[in-house]
UniProtKB/TrEMBL annotation:
Transmembrane segments: none annotated. PANTHER family: CHOLINE DEHYDROGENASE, MITOCHONDRIAL, GLUCOSE-METHANOL-CHOLINE GMC OXIDOREDUCTASE. It comes from the Eukaryota. Keywords: FAD, Flavoprotein. The keyword Flavoprotein applies. Residues 298-312 form the Glucose-methanol-choline oxidoreductase N-terminal domain. The keyword Flavoprotein applies. The gene is LOC106751385. This is Glucose dehydrogenase [FAD, quinone]-like. InterPro entries: FAD/NAD-bd_sf, GMC_OxRdtase, GMC_OxRdtase_N, GMC_OxRtase_C. Belongs to the GMC oxidoreductase family.
């Protein structure tokens, strides 16, 4: 039925040509660039969450010729529909990076390994993710500043959040003035869906536990339950190319290469002078930059490109047969958010009714005509709880909680979520059987500030071969303990009057690899965690920002690669520590700030030349 659903939606989209207008994006000028030996001022690798922003801001300077290189193509029309985002994970618009085997996680997923998904299209991950726009809290950025990164404190980076934003007037002017701008190109909106019965139930239970209900997730209060905003407008996803590239597609100084893979940074000694790329037709060409090369390829591809170019851990590069230009800890400090979709609640919903035979058609109609319904929502991801399970008095959360609802008989809801977290088929079938009698809810905690970190290493000198990802999830026992305390939190919720009145119970997920354990014992839950936990696609930190005297850092506070000239990295990989929430909003902010740093530095150069 899901494939019929997709066929129906795609058919209607053919009519709704505004969703699929190729003219919305800059044209692909790969052929022209390959044939004309054009020299650029700046080359940006990756038209993703940050790269689209940097491109927009640099092309504001009319006499700067800017080339943007993207391995993917334009986002598909399906990517515009919030309710279909989980289907994008297994599409050509997503890289699927398999991690190296680790017995601590993903043991009930295919081949017992985690798969990390990042975007492969204009917009990168902003074109395929759950669209949540969460700025995180002041402490995250003040921590970066305390680590020696001048200019990155909360008060200093807030203007760079506001610069992008176009928020509607649902909150006070005072809130908008500080936390959400309204003159930027990126629309930040609430999802066009009403609060569900299940969400109300969780909020009522949270109140009983004295957990606040937040008016807004982006503000000066960080602990509590609330509805998150997303990057969307009129019920459609707004990815970064729509916000930052579409309005400037006709700028004469903008050049874009699509379906083009960057293979290495070209160097003259320790100066970056261009990029070697492989075109769609398989040809390899060099493109030159007179001022800077900027890597915005994301937390997996940016470190890969640096290492392929000789910039990285000396010993590892020598083992790979790559001459080392600068010895830096590229690929280390890799952080991600781990989620645990292994906690299922069940309850009898007396008012539940089976979906009507025209359910899919009705939802398609609701969406296309009224921009409402399940297609206008993101599967319930926008309903989040931020709690601190280790310190009840803390101002800052250490755990984020997502809640997914599988209404009785509504198999499509479950199939959609299972696409994002595709655990073992036998486990899925058992849950599907439960759905014939009960409503089910998944309570998915995520460790926001993991103590565990991993690293990336090259698998091959061939840029087409994916890197090795050693995630090291749960290598630090503190992260396991945080998850177990999140389980305690849900057990406290189950004892509230709200949950007991509804007869909600913690369902025993029958996991083949955990049948040697007794239900609801520590042994079972630790086994459940090993089998069901997985990543929620927020990789950061692999090109760490820090001062030159920090041996774990790769770029300085102006995002310049240590020991190199004319080379910067501007994307999520520069985060010294992961933020306490979804990473898209901070990555857009990094794009805005990074572009300003470039402008400042080159205006300073120009001023010197004129003296």
């Amino acid at each position: 039925s899901t494939s019929v659903f997709l066929q129906l939606v795609q058919t209607i989209l053919a009519v709704q040509c505004s969703l699929n207008n190729k003219n919305n994006y800059p044209t692909d000028r790969s052929g022209e660039i390959a044939d004309n030996n054009i020299e650029f001022d700046f080359i940006i690798v990756g038209a993703g969450t940050a790269g689209s922003v940097v491109t927009n801001r640099l092309t504001e300077v009319e006499n700067w010729k800017v080339l943007l290189i993207e391995a993917g193509d334009d986002p598909s029309p399906v990517s515009k529909i919030p309710g279909l985002f989980a289907h994008l994970i297994s599409s050509p618009e997503s890289y699927a990076y398999d991690t190296e085997f680790d017995e601590r996680t993903c043991q009930s997923y295919k081949n017992k390994i985690c798969t990390w998904h990042t975007g492969k299209a204009l917009g990168g991950s902003s074109a395929i993710n759950g669209m949540l726009y969460i700025q995180s809290n002041e402490e995250d950025y003040n921590e970066w500043s305390r680590m020696g990164n001048e200019g990155w404190s909360y008060e200093e980076i807030l203007p760079y959040f506001r610069k992008s934003q176009n928020c509607d007037g649902v909150h006070t002017d005072e809130w908008r003035k500080k936390y959400c701008g309204h003159g930027g190109p990126l629309y930040i909106r609430y999802f066009n869906c009403s609060v569900t019965d299940m969400q109300k139930m969780f909020m009522d239970a949270a109140r009983e536990l004295n957990v606040p209900i937040l008016e807004t997730i982006n503000g000066n209060k960080y602990i509590g339950y609330g509805m998150a905003q997303g990057t969307l407008n009129e019920g459609r996803r707004m990815s970064t190319p729509e916000a930052f590239l579409s309005p400037i597609k006709n700028r004469s100084n903008l050049y874009v290469m699509k379906s083009t893979r960057a293979d290495a940074v070209l160097l003259d000694g320790t100066r970056a002078i261009g990029v070697r790329v492989t075109l769609k037709d398989g040809r390899s060409i060099d493109v030159k930059a007179s001022k800077e090369v900027i890597l915005s390829a994301g937390s997996i591809a940016s470190p890969q490109l640096l290492m392929l170019s000789g910039i990285g851990p000396k010993q590892h590069l020598l083992e790979m047969g790559i001459p080392n230009v600068v010895d830096l800890p590229v690929g280390k400090n890799l952080q991600n958010h781990v989620g645990w979709p292994g906690l299922h609640l069940a309850y009898k919903n007396e008012s539940a009714t089976p979906p009507s035979p025209t359910f899919i058609l009705d939802e398609a109609y609701q969406y296309l005509i009224h921009k409402q319904g399940i297609l206008a929502a993101n599967g319930g991801l926008n309903f989040v709880g931020n709690v601190n399970v280790n310190d009840a008095n803390s101002k800052y959360p250490d755990t984020q909680i997502y809640h997914f609802h599988y209404p009785r008989w509504h198999v499509d809801n479950m199939n959609t979520i299972w696409k994002a977290f595709p655990a073992d088929e036998e486990i899925k079938q058992n849950v599907l059987k439960m759905l014939q009698e009960f409503d089910m809810a998944v309570f998915m905690p995520c460790v926001l500030k993991p103590k565990s970190s991993g690293e990336l290493r090259l698998r091959s000198k061939d840029p087409a071969v994916p890197v090795k990802i050693y995630a090291n999830t749960f290598s630090q026992q503190e992260d396991v303990e945080t998850m177990m305390k999140a389980l305690d939190f849900i057990k406290k919720m189950l004892k509230t009057e709200t949950f007991t009145r509804r007869g909600v119970w913690l369902y025993h997920l029958d996991i083949p690899g955990c049948r040697h354990t007794e239900p609801d014992t520590d042994e079972y839950w630790l086994c459940n965690l090993r089998h069901m936990s997985t990543m929620i696609f927020h990789p950061v930190g692999s090109v760490k920002m820090g001062p030159r005297n920090d041996p774990t850092s790769v770029v300085d506070a102006r995002l310049r690669v240590h020991g190199m000239q004319g080379l910067r990295v501007i994307d999520a990989s520069i985060m010294p520590t992961i933020t306490s929430g979804n990473t898209m909003a901070p990555t857009i902010m990094i794009g805005e700030k990074g572009a300003d740093l470039i402008k400042e530095d080159w205006v300073a150069v120009k001023d010197k030349q004129e003296l």
